[in-house]
Design a protein that fits this description.
Elements: H1 2-7, H2 30-46, H3 49-70, H4 86-91, H5 103-121, H6 124-141, H7 146-153, H8 164-175, H9 178-185, H10 190-197, H11 208-225, H12 228-244, H13 275-291, H14 295-309, H15 342-350
Length: 352
């Protein structure tokens, strides 16, 4: 709905979406990316052809939207989103949250969904859309000075970019376009990467799920290039988090934030352990295990999968999932089935 409306296409009488995908929400479109990933993962494990048909429809529709954007005045070739390019313009002048809300985070969900559909369903159309979107990112960021990029990525929420570096590194490995790899590296976040490379735990005060996907991206850049520093960043980050920042269920963060090392026991509230953060920590764990098949990785994976991810889905058929997993005394989890939050988006994917 939001993509077609933004591209000037007929919305075919469909109702508006809800929550974080409502027409006035600044991250509208993120659920579409999660939905693509969920369809791809679902088909991979079930072979259900109805799911395949849904994915084909989504991809054909998104290609139509991308083509419509390309001929709209003021838009640039390859752009695709549930809103205009305005948020990206405003981020480059350092507009803060909540005036804008993480445009590259939303873009990452879309790009990751496209790549998942290509990987699991073999859709060349999905890869073509992703290729053009990667080119758009390259041309957009390539005209910015380095200090502007570094400032953008250090901004709380507004500069959150999910795993853009991860998806662009993945795209590079499929297209072999040097521009896609260059764009992936332009997302290097010195505020996180430099301390990790120096083996310094400087996570206290950082937004947990803003930074975990960035580290997954660093590991994928290592896979693409063999540059050891990116592996060292990911390796140290995982050990820092799991040694000094996790709850007994494997989740991390309170109020979405990392606290100082070794102090997490002081933060037992109704806003502990954001589900997105655990999902992304499991992705990072799986990838690190591929390079170093040590029991410590699978011990953590097992703990978090059973105690957080499997516990995050509503046992009733509502489609609901948790945002936080309250660990305060007497805490009780609740399920989000209508708001389309970030954790509801990952909740579409993580059980598959």
């Amino acid at each position: 709905y939001n993509f077609r409306a933004a591209a000037g296409l007929d919305t075919k009488g469909a109702p508006e979406m809800l929550g974080w995908d409502s027409p006035d929400c600044l991250v509208r479109g993120h659920t579409t990316g999660h939905y693509l990933s969920a369809l791809a993962l679902c088909y991979a494990v079930t072979g259900d052809e109805d799911i395949n048909k849904k994915a084909d429809y989504m991809i054909a529709s998104l290609e139509e939207c991308q083509q419509a954007f390309s001929i709209k005045p003021g838009y640039h070739e390859g752009f695709l989103s549930g809103y205009s390019e305005e948020q990206f313009d405003r981020l480059e002048s350092f507009t803060r949250y909540p005036e804008i809300w993480a445009p590259y985070y939303t873009l990452h969900k879309i790009l990751a969904g496209l790549l998942d559909v290509y990987r699991h369903l073999g859709s060349d159309t999905a890869l073509g859309i992703a290729d053009r979107l990667g080119d758009w990112v390259y041309h957009r960021l390539g005209r910015l000075p380095n200090h502007v990029l570094k400032t953008m990525w250090s901004m709380y929420i507004a500069g959150e970019f999910g795993g853009m570096n991860d998806s662009l590194a993945e795209l590079y490995q499929l297209t072999r376009k040097p521009s896609h790899l260059a764009a992936a590296k332009w997302f290097d976040n010195d505020r996180l990467f430099v301390p990790m490379q120096e083996r310094i735990d400087a996570l206290g005060g950082l937004h947990a799920n803003q930074h975990i996907p960035q580290v997954i991206g660093a590991l994928n850049i290592f896979r693409a290039t063999g540059e050891k520093k990116y592996y060292e960043i990911a390796h140290f980050f995982w050990h820092a988090v799991t040694n000094a920042h996790i709850y007994s269920i494997g989740g991390t963060g309170e109020g979405e934030m990392f606290r100082q090392a070794g102090r997490i026991g002081e933060y037992l509230s109704d806003k502990t352990a954001e589900t997105c953060a655990s999902y992304n920590m499991l992705k990072l764990t799986k990838e690190l295990f591929g390079y170093e098949p040590a029991a410590k990785y699978m011990d953590y994976y097992e703990r978090t999968m059973f105690n957080h991810i499997l516990a995050s889905g509503d046992s009733k058929p509502t489609g609901g999932s948790t945002y936080f997993m309250p660990l305060e005394p007497g805490g009780r989890k609740s399920f989000d089935s209508t708001s389309n939050t970030c954790c509801h988006g990952t909740g579409l994917e993580n059980h598959f």
